[in-house]
Fold these 3 entries.
Entry 1:
Amino acid sequence: MTSMLLTTMRTCSVGPSLAMRFGARSLSTTAQLQAQAQTKSKKTLARPGVKNIVLVEGVRTPFLLSGTTYADLMPHDLARAALQGLLNKTSVPKDAVDYIIYGTVIQEVKTSNVAREAALGAGFSDKIPAHTVTMACISSNQAMTSAVGLIAAGQCDAVVAGGVEFMSDVPIRHSRKMRKTMLSLNKAKTLGQRLSLIGSIRMAHLAPELPAVAEFSTAETMGHSADRLAAAFGVSRLEQDDFALRSHSLAKKAQESGLLEDVMSFKVPGRDIVSKDNGIRPSSMEQMAKLKPAFIKPHGTVTAANSSFLTDGASAVLIMSEEKALAMGYKPKAYLRDFVYVSQDPKDQLLLGPTYATPKVLERAGLTLNDIDVFEFHEAFAGQIMANLKAMDSDWFGQTYLGRQSKVGTPPMEKFNLWGGSLSLGHPFGATGCRLVTTVAHRLKKEGGQYGLVAACAAGGQGHAMVIEAYPQ
């Protein structure tokens, strides 16, 4: 497929520069958008006989570069902090929640069910069940939709969902031969057996197995896949750097304007209080151009500046049936409506989840791209985002791979990731989904929109999309 895309998709360019194509509109301030926006009068997506499920509140710890202020913590510490932040913000009674679900990717073996450990640490009742899910970068998306399923099925009325990732300390294993020897030593009954096993150890056995953000099925790192995808869709280095600069610039404006209201302050034990993301660093096109390719050398286009960075952080959301939320005196932020999960070839289409998921979720909801007021797409790499935009803008791709008569269409950039994204805010793998959904809810309120769309790619060639509807003000 890659060779076909290389020859065919060159004509589907998004343009030489986002800034050139969209001009100042792509950097419009929220104040300007509010002045222009009018409350929509579109139909609601409520259906007779179908329970309305709402997002009551969402919070997250500041997302920090791995190896910085959170470096001495453990994953459940961050998850516990997010849960405590949610409790503080909502004042929900600790025994009023029916279930807790957390997403994570790289598990700490000591706290493999991090949802349970964090819930107990946060002071939730020990009678509340909790489990942990993993689905790569859409793990907290899965946590949220699992919560929606429990409520829709009548099993629960109130569920806390969230996600956590802690890249400052990831498990590093001994080699398999060394692990087998150590397990055998543990079972050895005589001194002779122990000495024999110790004598079998060779220097090569001591080499550690280092973790990597790579596909097990293809052995290819995600950065390498992003570089190939960008090449296949003709995404230039200039376009990628331009998009990354846009993300950092918008995030900086949102942070300084106090728009990132889901971020809670967190007193790190033995350290300072942290109250904002620390990866937002607007640079310049000239400085970004000096960086060397990070994965495919020397001719790759993916660099440290146009990729999301290794991040520590946690998020949490309170999801309820609308009836329960109103009975408890809450004013919900948004309705959680239709959602889909998709999956495709993890070799050539690893990061195209948004392109596959977007038309499917719009069809389920009975909406078109033009009905969407707020778009929040996960930014794994600038090249990945741009490749998805080009795929969505291609009749050929729509006909060949999506079974459509024409293209999906491209989200307008004046509605797209206006408060920054994963490239600038950070991407704790398991926690990003909740950030996306909470951001959509907040943006809908600020901008006077009615419908928002979240979309994300994930390892394994999987993807997710969800439609969110603003709650009546």
Entry 2:
Amino acid sequence: MATAARRLVPFHLRPPGARPLAAVAAAPHSRKRDAVSCKSTGKTRAKNKAKDTTMWRPQRRELEEHLKRRTRSAGAFDPGLYRRHSHSHHVPVLLGEVLAAFRRPLPLRSFVDCTLGAAGHSLAMMEAHPEMELHVGMDVDPSALEIGQRHIEAFLVSRATGEGGEDALQGTLRAYTHVKNFKYIKHVLGGVDESLADGSSGVDGILIDLGMSSMQVNRSDRGFSVLNDGPLDMRMDPKATLTAEDILNSWPELEVGRILRDYGEESNWQSLQRRIVKERKTGGLHSTGELVKLIQRTCTISGGRQGWIKTATRVFQALRIAVNDELQTLEDALHSCFDCLAPDGRLAVISFHSLEDRIVKQTFLELIRGDEAEDDEEDLVCADIDDEDEPWFKQRVQGTNGTVLTKRPTTPSQEEEKLNQRCRSAKLRVIQKA
């Protein structure tokens, strides 16, 4: 069936080493070293814990800042760039760094934005690359795609009415948008031009931004927000059938616990699992507000990032990943995107939590190894690069099929974090096809 396009126009991945479900039931309810309960029992323990926290918190902050400096973007921050391409709907993350990833001697004639959103990254790419001849925007969220589509249409109109000489140099840009998940990139590109998907041609650049946009988080009816009451939905694709409410009220108890443990990396997952299942006897959970209240009762620490809000964020993350089959979808999409690249083409991925980043890192290494997939990372050629044209890629990993340009991911600059607090956990990795 042909892809519907406008001319402008249940995941169960178990991470490596995870225990089988049967082992979950046999796991102890607490471990002195591995698990930290949200609930404090006894004044003495609370006092000692507070004393210990006071002692190690400065050292921890110092270590975290040291590790952050190792990956922070070295590029100059351009506030004007962010002002031009930010909207009330969304502020694009690592915008300057994404532009840098595709700024090179080779022309960028074709570009795919797999998560179009409000089109902040796409508009900046179009502006920076007047030689671009083809742009394809994809998004599984039709409401987000509609906003991005309008912004691209406005850009094309303004460019068409610009200076004649400059417009002649720019040539014609064909732009398409598709309501599709990025794992279907081959199908989408095949509908535009078969040579783009079968390996005979390929595209010059592909971007995947895995972050939640503000226009999704701020809408309480989508169920993504911890602070706004709404239905327990969390579907990126409104046509999908599975919701967070289904998981919480009907999935087996062991599966609920596995989701909280593996996808949310929540140390207090067992207590939350028991309370969630217990709620089913009195009607279950049907709104984000009810789920938040359950988490607050489980965690007696006061509000703040170190209290129930942090736990709630992890729980919401876990449910969103399960509802949208995000991790398996990501791994499949990375392979498909790499296949669609032209020689010397680049794929850039922005992730926002450790599970995503781990998959991107491991899959990138698998892609460049080719038949040498059994080799260790140390067996690949790692080069320290002092390149004035590309100073943002200081360490590269060379393989048979390509090069990982970011041995360590690039993270936002301090200036960007001050502008947009939601970007603080973003990580950018880039791979180039041989």
Entry 3:
Amino acid sequence: MDKDPQLQLRVFDLNCWAIRYLSKVRQQRIELIGNVLNQEGYDLALLQEVWSERDYWELKKKLCARYPSSHYFKSGVIGSGLCIFSRYQILDTFLYQYSVNGYPYMFQHGDWFGGKSVGLVVLKIQEIVFNIYVTHLHAEYCREKDAYLPHRVVQAWELAQFIQHTSKGADVVLLGGDLNMHPEDVGIRLLRGWAGLRDSFIAAEKVEGGEDGSTLLPTNCFTSKKELRCYPQGIRIDYILYKGLSHYEVKCNRHETTTGTAPNKDIPYSDHEAVIATLSVNKRALGKGLNHPRVEPVLVDVLNEARMEVRVGLHAAERQQYSCGRMAVLAVLLLLMQATMGLSSMFGDALLQPFPKFSFSLLSLLGVLVLLISAVLYLFHTIEVKVLQGTEEQMRVGLQTLQDKLSSR
């Protein structure tokens, strides 16, 4: 058993910030990303925010020699932005789109239009089955008043559940992506605790790069200085997480983050820094137990905290649902009143009075528009309420199961 060769994987993860027409020097940076992937020859490249399929095909054409297998995950209106490049053959793929993902009327944020998702590819390397996940969760925008925190917690829960239920036949699980959460946020603690994932930065034997593994740095010329004014050292929101299953164990030998401009260039690869992890996969020695993660009592507190955030979001969604419903009722009443006025002018005694047709038509159009918009938003928030209620119930069941396990020790 000890003579089995050790398998090493070098994994590259980057939020490319490649928004067509909006991201600065996008095409030049995409070329730089392609160059570094070719030069370094990583085993896997997990990319986010490749919003243009044209950019993906440019990368695919450039990387086909070193990364013969790749996949682009399509989702939402403008696409998920997720893609994977692999030195090894991709055997299977799957995409799961999160149930809640911001609001369609928040055009300035745009997360809803991206259809935030988690992409899965299955690889087999030296007879070891790998489930590789890449994802991008909803952005934070304002930490002090984070209206999207419940949605992001739901996404973290669904991600953990998705990994749990799809990795039963795998030997190794690997997750990379922009999770838009600080290391101690409830969503990250939920992922690590519930899905049993290890953080490459925390577990690495050797760490190189920025302080605390930060991937948003104030020294990056593309990052928002206002966003980082409270974090002069930067923040870490991009992660590589992993775990070994069945008869295999995984160790992180090295964790590295880029810190600055691309080699011999005056611009960085993105507004995010890249995360590179070197992982080793070993077969477990005879007599060593399988990787059944121990249930920790602290996970009860994490799950309770997550449920509380979901409940906060549920109350806010119910208020929005009520407001939209009330607006739709008022629009219906306005249209009924206009219809009554129109009928009375046609058949009543006011025939000698000139009827203000233009004003009447304008008011009718306004009433119809308000009715349509409020009805659509009412349906949207009704779906949001149902999803949040369902997630809270799932967490309650999971919490009960967790408490039963702890009490039976």
